[in-house]
Amino acid sequence: MSPTMVEHNGLDIMCLNKYCPSSSSSSSSEHDKKIFPKLKLNLSADYPRKNAEILSGQYGTNLLLIGAALMLAMAQHDSLVEEEHLLSFITSLMILQLIWMMWYILVRDRQKNARTERDVHVTTCWIRGGLTLLALLSLIMDAFRIGYYVGYQSCVSAVLGVYPVIHATHTIAQVHFLWFHIKDVIKSLETFERFGVIHAVFTNLLLWCNGVMSEAEHFMNNHMRRLSALGYQNLTIVHSKPLCNCTTSTCSMFTSSLYYLYPFNIEYHIFVSAMLFVMWKNIGRTIDVSSNQKRLATKTQGLSVGPILGLFALASTIGILVVYITHVESPQTRQSAISMFYIYGIVMLVLMCFAGASGLLIYRADHMPLDTSKNPSRQLDMELLFGSSTGSWLMSWCSIVAVLSSSSSPPYLWTNFIYSLLIVLEKYMQNLFIIESLYRQQEEGIRKDPELPSAPEIFSVTSSLAPPYNGIINRAYDTPDRTCVENEHEEGGQVYRCPRKPSEVALPLGTKVVEPPNIKRQILKNISVFLIMCNISLWILPAFGCRPQYDNGLEQDTFGFSIWTAVLNFAIPLNLFYRMHSVASLFEVFRRV
After folding, report:
1. Residue range 95-154, pLDDT digits in tens
2. How many CB atoms lie within 10 A of CB 136?
3. Among 225, 402, 428, 585, which is disulfide-ready with 555 (CB 3.0 to 4.6 Å)?
4. Can you name the residues that pair with 5 across neighbouring β-strands?
5. Quick count: other Cβ atoms within 10 Å of Cβ 228?
C-alpha cells in the first residue's frame, strides 16, 4: 500500500488510501453525483403529470362552480340573472369542447400509422349503443326546443334558439367521439389533452345539472299546484311562460313533451361524463397487456326465471305508474295511491334483497381469488355506486325519522317505514353483489369464447373404409409415449392400431361436445337479469313523476317544506343515476359470469 500525505495546519499526516478521509469524501461525492441526477430525473418525470392533473382538475371544478353559482342566482325570484345568461355560458363551453374534439380527431387521423394504445375496459358496444339511443332522444328534445323558440321568437332571447342547435351539434360530435376514441390512452401532448378531456367532463356535468334543475323546477310547480288544489295556502307558483302569444299551434305540445324527455337527456350527460373521466384518468397510463384483453361473449342458455320475473316486475311497474299518477291528484284516492306504491315497493325490494343475498352466498361458496389488477373503469364503477347510494340513503333515513316522530297515523305510516329500511338494505346487498362480481377472477375454463363454434375433430371422422372402428381415432395426444405398435402394412402406407377403450366412441364430422350446464353460473345469470329489470323499473317510477316523498306529507311536516324540498332535489337525481348505473354494472356482471 502506498501512503499519501495530507497537509493539515502545517502538519504532515500519514494515512492509507483505504482509510484516508479525502478518499472517502471523494467516493461519497461520486455516489451523490449518481443519486441526485436520478432523483432529479424522477421528479422531472412525475411532476408535470401530477401538476397537470391538479391544474386540470381545478379548472374543471371551477367551471362547474361558475355554472352552479348562475343556477343558484336564477333560483331566486326576480333575480337579475336570467336563463339566457346560464345558457350562454353553457353554449360557450360546448363550442370549446367541439373545437377540442375536432382538433383531437384530426390529429388522430393524421397519425394513422402510429399505434394508439386502447383500454378495452372503458366501455362496451352495448353501453355505447345505449348512449346512442339516449342521444337520439336528446336530439328530439332539441328539435322541440327549436320549435318552441320558433313559436315565441318575437319575445324571447335568441340564445333560446342558438342553444338547442349547438347542443344538437355537440351531441352528434360527442357520440362519434365515444364510438371511435373513448378507449384511447393518450401519450402525446398529455397536458393539453388533459385539459381538453376534463373540459368535456365538466361540460357534460354542467349540462346534467341544468337538466336536473329544469326538471326539478317543473315537478315542483306541479307539486305546488296539487297542494293548492288540496287547500294549502301561501304557495308561490312560478309561471315561466313568455309574454307573447305563440305563432304556431304546437307550442303547448312542445312544452309538455320536453319534460318527458328530460330523464333521458339527464342520464345521457351523466354517463358521458363518467366515461370521459375514465379517459382522463388513462392519460399517460401504461396499460398492463395481460389484463387488457377484450371480454368475450357469454352464453345465454338457461335463462328462464330471471327474465320472466323481470318482465313481470316491469309490466307491474308501468301499471303502478299509471294508477298512481291518475289517483294521486284526487283527495279521495290520494292515500290509497300512496299506500299502493309502498306495498309494491316492499315486494320489489324484498325480492331484490333475496336475489342479491343468493348471489353473494354462491360467490362465498366458490372460493375464487379477487382480481387486483389496476382498472380505472372498474374503480370508478365502485365509487359511483357508493357515491350515488348516499342520495337515497339520506332520503330513507329522513323518512324513518319522520315516521318515528310523527303525531299523525295515515294508512301508509308503517309501510313507509318498512319501505325506507328495505331501500337501505337492498342497496347494501346490490352494491356488495356487483363489486364481488366485478372484482372476482374468471375461471380459466371460461376465458375461451364459448360462442365460437368448436372446430371439428380432425381425427374423429367416420369412415366406411374401417368398419370395425367406425372411424379413425387419434391417440397421439393421449399416448405421447407412442405405446401403440406398428403391426400392419397396407398399400398406401402404415396403419397404427391400438387396443380400443370401451368408452371411446368416434364422433362424426361437425359434431360438438355438449358441455354439462353449470348450475351456479345459470343462477347468477338469472339473478343479474332479474336485478337489471328491477332497477329499470325503479328508475321509471321517479323519472316519470311517481314520487310519494313529495305527496305523503310526513317528511314535510317534520323537516319543513324548504328543507325537505332541498333534500329531495339532492337525493332524487342521485337515486336516478344509481339505478341506471346499476343496470350498466349488472350487465357487466351478466357478461362476466
Report:
1. 999 999 999 999 888 877 767 778 777 878 888 899 999 999 999 999 999 998 888 888
2. 14
3. 402
4. 14
5. 13
Helix (H/G/I), strand (E/B), else coil: 340: helix
Same-domain status, 395 and 538 = yes
Which range is least confidently modeled, 33-37, 315-319, 551-555? 33-37
Per the CB < 8 A criterion, the answer to whether 142 and 164 are in contact is: yes
Cα 267-273-275 angle, rounded to 5 deg: 100
Tell me the torsion sign for CA atoms 296, 300, 302, 308: positive
- Provide CB contacts within 8 A for 31, sequence distance 6+: none
Measured distance CA(451)–CA(515) in Å, rounded: 13
Judge whether residue 506 has pLDDT over 70.
no
CB neighbours (10 Å) of residue 137?
17
Q: Residue 409 sits in which domain range?
A: 299-441+518-592
For residue 497, count other CB atoms closer than 10 A to its CB.
14
Tell me if 194 sits within 8 A of 56, measured CB to CB: yes
Q: How far apart are CA 219 and CA 438, in angstroms?
A: 37
In angstroms, how far apart are the furthest CA atoms of the chain? 113
CB neighbour list of residue 581: distance below 8 Å, 6 or more residues apart: 271, 274, 381, 384, 385, 388
Instruction: Note whether 254 and 365 are same-domain residues.
Output: no
What kind and span of H or E run contains 133? helix 125-152
pLDDT digits (tens, 9 = 90+) for 259-312: 889 999 999 999 999 999 999 988 887 776 555 555 555 556 667 888 999 999
410: three-class secondary structure by DSSP: coil
DSSP state of 469: T
Pull the grid cell for residue 507.
Answer: 364422433
Q: Are residues 210 and 73 in the same domain?
A: yes
Q: What is the rounded distance in angstroms from the CA atom of residue 18 to the CA atom of residue 2? A: 10
Is the residue at 491 inside a domain?
no
Whether 531 is in a domain gets the answer yes
CA distance 226 to 214: 19
Predicted confidence (pLDDT) per residue in 378-401, tens digit:
888 899 999 999 999 999 999 999
Position 225, amino acid: R
> Using only C-alpha atoms, what is the Rg of the chain?
33
Model confidence at 490: pLDDT above 50:
no
Contact 131, 272 (CB under 8 A): yes
For position 189, what pLDDT does the model report?
A: 81
Question: Could you tell me which of 493, 497, 473 has the C-alpha nearest to residue 484?
Answer: 497
Rounded to whole angstroms, the Cα distance separating 128 from 271 reads 10
Same domain, 279 and 326: no
Which own/partner contact pairs does 51-59 have at CB distance under 8 Å and 24+ positions apart? 52/190, 52/191, 52/194, 52/195, 53/194, 55/195, 56/191, 56/194, 56/195, 56/197, 56/198, 56/280, 57/198, 59/195, 59/198, 59/199
Residue 270 lies in a domain: yes
pTM for the full predicted model: 0.77
Q: Give how many domains the chain has, as a whole number.
A: 2
